[in-house]
Design a protein that fits this description.
This protein has helices at about 125-130, 195-200, and strands at about 25-35, 40-50, 55-60, 85-90, 95-100, 105-110, 140, 145-150, 155-160, 165-170, 180-185, 205. By secondary structure, it is mainly beta. The chain has a twelve-stranded mixed β-sheet with strand order 7-8-9-10-11-1-2-3-4-5-6-12. A hairpin with a 2-residue loop joins strand 2 (about 40-50) and strand 3 (about 55-60).
Length: about 210
Amino acid sequence: MKVLSLAALALVAQQALAASPDLQAVVRYETVSQGADGVEKTVRYSERWVRQNGHVWRERLNAAAPHRHDDDGHQHLDFAAAPRHVWRDAKGELRVEFVHAAKRERIVVEKREWNDAGFDGSWARASQLVDASQLRGFAKKHESADVAIYRKAGKTLRWSERWQMPLQVTLRSADGRQRETITVAPQALPAGAVPPWRRSAAWPARDYLDTLD
């Protein structure tokens, strides 16, 4: 079954992305789908996020190390689960790399391969989880001085003005057979914390296309 896409949300941010505060967060995903046969399936996973100085790091928690394939003897990276680092360079261009910790190397993905590697090219979604560029047709109310709630046709977003991140996103299909809930627990970065991308910055870089051999 097709998972509901966060791209369907059109949301507005009150501050420019440059003002987005540094943070660390655990993001929990849950998708529940009910098939025509009445069987209900639940998928859950969590990610660690770090956002600091225009860099964003996300990695799947509890993911196993890449396994060795018998046919070619190579360890192939699961790009959906691998640590991903997205940032803007000095020219403002987006850069994307994945980290292969088992081989201590960085996989550099050029723009032409972004989609193949699972990156949609949206800096807003990379840094704020949802595209917070515009609100169209969502009803809004304030839960508190910090939290605003947006609702529209099966979609609900609890947005934190302080963190410039959603605290919860809930999506429900029109027939009620599929629902997706994303919960975000943001925290301030500890003083002196070393960003995870710095630990791998000196590792050799490999082109994404080379990993397809």
